[in-house]
Amino acid sequence: MERGRSRRSVLAAAVTAVCGITVLGAPGTAFATAQQPSPRPRDGASPSPSGSPSATPAPDTAVDDKLEAVRTKLDKLYHDAAVATDAYNAAEEKARQQSAEIAELTRKISEGQKKLDELKDRAGAAARAQYATGGLPPEARLMLSEDPQAFLDGAGWALQGERATRDLIQDMTRTQKELRQYADQAADRLAKLEATRKAKDAARKRIKERIEEAEKLQATLEKKQRERLAELERQAARRAQSAWLGTGVLKDVRGKASDAGQQAVRFATAQIGKPYEWGAEGPRTYDCSGLTSQAWAAAGRPIPRTSQEQWKRLPHVAVKDMRPGDLIIYFDDASHVALYVGGGTIVHAPRPGRTVTLAGAGEMPILGVVRPDAA
After folding, report:
1. How would residue 337 be classed by pLDDT, with cut points 50, 70 and 90?
2. Which of 37, 185, 193, 286 is close enough to 349 for a disulfide, judged by CB 3.0 to 4.6 Å?
3. Which H helix or E strand runs over 329?
4. Quick check: bond before 283 cis, omega within 30?
5. Which residues have CB under 8 Å from 257's CB, separation 6+?
6. What 3-state class would DSSP assign to 50?
7. Which residues contact 316 (CB under 8 A, 6 or more apart)?
8. Which residues does the annotation mark as catalytic?
9. Tens digits of per-residue pLDDT, 13-35?
């Protein structure tokens, strides 16, 4: 009987520990701690969700120190890749806009050239008509006319013709000027598009270099080391989330999602499990801002494509006023973004090698909160 009670007590304690872990941090860690390394626990003990040392044997401190250095390096590499990804996405967006402007200018040039050709045809017809009359001045035609009244009637028409000719010449001059302006603007847009493409290529190169370096670093680890590294990442995420919740930040957070916010949350959470891919906007893969921008597009509220532009252009709200559907922007350079789903939890596309997932909102240093559907 005592043994049964003892076993039930152990089971209850285990369930309590698991529940505590679930509350403190949802699965999935981004390049979260790149700029905010967490202090290592004393005596090699891993902190439990309540902050007290666990009863498990202390891991090899020397090995953990090395793996912590690897984790810090990986976080920096993936953070650099995220910054470059934002630059790439911004360049891609700008290139689309510039291409559209060039297409519109090309259309105007084509229409203007067509109009100029028609004006030239009319001017040629007028010149031929004048040649047919011999090009005589009006006084001479009056003297030579057999019917002066008919001539005077014709002179009225001739005066109108002269006015029409002047208007024709002015129209041609104006059209030629517009064509020159359109051509200059098109040349300017082409030069800017070329610069944008070079910036995009440079960003693409930086992304690939950082990801390849991170993959090579991880490839040097043995299976047990990779497993331990993943555990250290989870521990760091739980510590950060626990510290954030410990500030009482959610005490006054009671905002309810708007209808559009609910739609954005439904869209984003439906993407859970899909792979991260830099520059991707779905439907099979996403990067962080690709997920948030598509979630709000699905809610009928298009927003800027990049996390930095989302931070710059969307209305800011205080953390205590945030509600599900709002976007949380991370790091001082606004290089990461997630969609808040409530209860201290976010859904986001973390980094290369990961999938869209739920995570604790406090696992990364928060820059601020923005609201796509603010009044």
Report:
1. very high
2. 286
3. strand 327-330
4. yes
5. 265, 323, 324, 325, 342
6. coil
7. 368, 369, 370, 371
8. 288, 336, 348
9. 333 333 333 333 333 344 433 33
